[in-house]
Amino acid sequence: MNIEHLNAKYGISGQLKFIEGKGRLPMIRVSSSKASALISIHAGQVLSFQPAGEPDDLMFLSEKAYYQVGKAIKGGAPICWPWFGSDPEELGRPGHGFVRNRLWNVVKTEITTNGDLSITLGLVDTPETQVIWPHAFSLTQEITIGDTLNLELVTRNTGTESFFITQAFHTYFRVGNIHQAVVLGLEGHEYIDKVDSSRQKKQVGAVAINTEVDRIYLDVLNKLVIEDIALKRRIQITSSGNKTAVVWNPWKEIAVEMADLQDMDYQHLLCVETTNAATDVITVTPNNECRLVANYRIIRD
């Protein structure tokens, strides 16, 4: 991608600029009166979001993250699509699909009527994607940056046959201390415990993290909250288009094994993911679309 061309066509003076980021990947830097943000066009991934006046970033981003074609970036809000988790057909395809490790297209940038910045990135099927997943599609991500961060992932079926997807905003939130962070809003909900042979269990009280956690929560409400005592803030997650949510933290042993995480990073990250996962499978019929939405707001008392 030509950075100069992108700035000439899509740049917004003083607020939105295309830059060459780490690994020479094209990125978008947003600096407005409402917030600052960094978006990687590779992977269509928001890496950073910090509202004006906030001392801490909303998101966790690993200092050891990979920035290269064909690799996923560890942190921010990766997109899992058209499947969440392992290859559903067991064909040896990559976990979490194929859009989080390839270059997206810039579709549109604009200032909205209320002064937010809106960026639309997109992908369409190609001969290469058809080999991986034999369906015709148009995928767009509408990113709105203002007092909150709003993500909308829109899947359109441009073919002649229905297809099925699972998907996620696999968002890494920064927390001050994992021992002082809990997730509210999942009390009493059933979940699939991926750490314990996918046994189904029931959540008692708030979700606290004191070991490896990898859970798919079922029939969730559209509002969850991360209570982050160490950073003296709450992160409100409002969603639509989903019936499931995932809570994940690798904990110490797995963090040590991950080449793109520092050993102690597990203490400062918490993934609370807006998902269509497990039995929450979406059918997209020809010439129709589905929309997954997540909105993130930092609240301080």
Structural notes for this entry:
With 301 residues, this protein is mostly beta strands. The chain has a single domain, classed as Beta-galactosidase, Chain A, domain 5 (Distorted Sandwich), CATH 2.70.98. Helix content is 7%, strand content 43%. It contains three helices and 23 strands. Strands 6-7-8-9-23-19-18-13-16 form a nine-stranded antiparallel beta sheet, with no helix packed on it. Strand 6 and strand 7 form a beta hairpin. The mean pLDDT is 97. InterPro entries: Aldose_1/G6P_1-epimerase, G6P_1-epimerase, Gal_mutarotase_sf_dom, GH-type_carb-bd. One of its GO terms (molecular function) is glucose-6-phosphate 1-epimerase activity. Keywords: Isomerase.
Essential attributes:
single chain, mainly beta, eight-stranded antiparallel beta sheet, about 5% helix, globular
Describe this structure in a few short sentences.
With 301 residues, this protein is mainly beta. It is built from 3 helices and 23 strands. This is Putative glucose-6-phosphate 1-epimerase.
Mean model confidence by pLDDT = 97
Number of domains: 1
Number of strands: 23
Strand order of the largest sheet: 6-7-8-9-23-19-18-13-16
Counting DSSP H or I runs of 4 or more residues, the number of helices is 3
Broad structural category: mainly beta
| Computed CA radius of gyration, to the nearest angstrom | 19 Å
CATH topology title: Beta-galactosidase, Chain A, domain 5
Shape: globular
* Corresponding CATH architecture: Distorted Sandwich
Oligomeric state of this protein: single chain
Distance between termini?
43 Å
Largest sheet: 9 strands, antiparallel
EC number: 5.1.3.15
InterPro entries: Aldose_1/G6P_1-epimerase (IPR008183), G6P_1-epimerase (IPR025532), Gal_mutarotase_sf_dom (IPR011013), GH-type_carb-bd (IPR014718)
Protein name: Putative glucose-6-phosphate 1-epimerase
Catalytic activity: alpha-D-glucose 6-phosphate = beta-D-glucose 6-phosphate
